[in-house]
Amino acid sequence: MQTRPLIRLLYVSRAAGPQTGTVSTSILSVAQTNNRKNGITGVLCQGQGLYLQVLEGQRSAVNQLYAAILNDKRHHDVELLQLEEITTRRYPDWSMAHVELSDQDLMIRMNHPDFDPYTASGSTVMQLLTALVSSGDRLTMPPA
Ligand SMILES: Cc1cc2nc3c(=O)[nH]c(=O)nc-3n(C[C@H](O)[C@H](O)[C@H](O)COP(=O)(O)O)c2cc1C
Predict the structure, then answer these.
(1) From 28, 34, 56, 58, mutation site for ligand 1 pocket: most ligand atoms within 8 A of C-beta
(2) pLDDT number for residue 1
């Protein structure tokens, strides 16, 4: 049987309001339930008024979810940073892991004081995110 193409997508967005625990809990609980059903895995990173999210899965499922995310009023300025076809998932076991960014993450801790995901290259943002996730700080990983 031919397997369907898998893709990995990375975007950045600005939170519409304060990134409170209530907002993130409601986004994450729906995300984790839906993603398990739809074979989506990834990471949602939030803080500093931003969301950075990696979505992995079958191309049609990722496209459908991204279309819903683009229309979600809880954030704006959604900008696609990277899209690649993949053969293996980076986060096969996480329906949507969650990372809280501190005020220093990405920018200072990673030695990128001027770091701005809206102007940096997609591959740089992906690398920083990957490093942040593998450091394990403030990471919560619900199973896929
Ligand atoms: C930053 C952000 C990340 C989101 N991530 C996901 C996700 O990974 N999976 C998901 O199903 N919905 C996610 N959502 C919610 C979707 O935009 C949308 O509300 C949801 O998919 C609708 O689900 P429903 O049709 O079951 O109500 C996210 C929303 C925001 C603001």
Answers:
(1) 34
(2) 55
